[in-house]
Automatic annotation (TrEMBL):
Gene3D superfamilies: 1.10.1660.10, Cobalamin-binding domain, Methionine synthase domain. Keywords: DNA-binding, Repressor, Transcription, Transcription regulation. This is DNA-binding transcriptional MerR regulator. It comes from the Bacteria. GO terms for molecular function: DNA binding. It holds the Pfam family B12-binding_2. Signal peptide: none annotated. Residues 6-75 form the HTH merR-type domain.
């Protein structure tokens, strides 16, 4: 039987984004993890230890004290309402930890294999919410803090994008289901959020069509006229599309007014920032996919 992989503290620090000093503090002072020790005295950590450290980090960012975090991870603490706290399962966080390790090495085969295992084990909804989104958030953080280089960030994002594309292509919707068109605003290249939203809407019973990253001005309107969807989703992760193309949002808003039978939504961090002072009239601005809801009659 193959021995479970073990990690030195430097490797754990790279995967979790926690310093070696913090990891040792959380171990010695709070007992959050209890790694094995080799004969030479070195600590070695299991994948379960890494998953627990990532859960502890997530809980601390939510505002819990480390003492409370330690109790939550032991399953002995309760929320103020008296209900047991909801903590991401070790299995889900473990998938994310494995993805981060493979991504740091730019191992495409390993990344794809982990994604496939996580999807098969958790199902699409939990796979997106509990593995893909946390992984992408951690990749972004590692890039911003320069723990990862641009190549590692770009490589990992491309593998995720390609995996999501294949999922959407192979996910069968009813031929009578209403159609949703998803597109980035012109000038926006971050298309992964659109893939995630479209997959979630397929779970609700929609057909989907992706226009993709940075369409030329006018393409969204032309494809909408041709396909006549029930819903059009627009996304911008940055404000650059609106700075480079200040006429795009007003033009799309006027187009939405000309097609009142179609629901138009716009979201993404860049959209939310820009529309705080440039609110469209007909396009609904939201980051909550649940506002769209299932098709009528579902």
């Amino acid at each position: 039987m193959e021995r479970a992989k073990r990690y030195y503290v430097k490797e754990v620090a790279s995967i979790t984004g926690l310093s070696a000093q913090v990891i040792r503090k959380w171990e010695d002072r709070y007992g959050i993890v209890r790694p094995e020790r080799l004969d030479n005295g070195y600590r070695v950590y299991s994948e379960a230890d890494i998953a627990k450290l990532m859960r502890a980090k997530s809980l601390q960012l939510e505002g819990h004290s480390l003492l409370k975090v330690a109790k939550l991870l032991e399953g002995s603490a309760e929320t103020d309402s008296g209900e047991q706290s909801v903590i991401p399962s070790e299995k889900k966080v473990g998938h994310t930890a494995k993805l981060l390790e493979a991504g740091s090495r730019c191992d495409e085969g390993e990344l794809s294999l982990i994604l496939r295992h996580a999807y098969n084990e958790l199902g699409l909804r939990s796979f997106l919410d509990d593995v893909v989104i946390p992984f992408l958030e951690e990749v972004g953080r590692k890039w911003e803090t320069e723990e990862w280089g641009e190549f590692q960030e770009s490589f990992s994002s491309l593998v995720i994008r390609d995996f999501l594309i294949n999922l959407r292509r192979n996910y069968k919707a009813h031929e009578e289901a209403p159609l949703v068109i998803g597109a980035c605003f012109p000038g926006e290249t971050h298309e992964i959020p659109v893939h995630i939203i479209l997959l979630k809407l397929m779970l609700e019973g929609y057909q989907t069509h992706l226009i993709g990253a940075s369409p030329a001005p006018g393409v969204i309107e032309a494809i909408t006229d041709r396909l006549d969807p029930a819903i059009v989703l627009l996304s911008a992760a940055t404000t650059l599309p609106f700075i480079r193309h200040p006429e795009v949002l007003p033009a799309l808003d006027r187009f939405a007014a000309s097609r009142p039978e179609i629901r138009f939504y716009a979201g993404g961090e860049g959209t939310m920032l820009y529309t705080a002072s440039h609110q469209p009239v007909m396009i609904r601005v939201t980051n909550d996919v649940e506002e769209i809801g299932p098709p009528s009659g579902n």
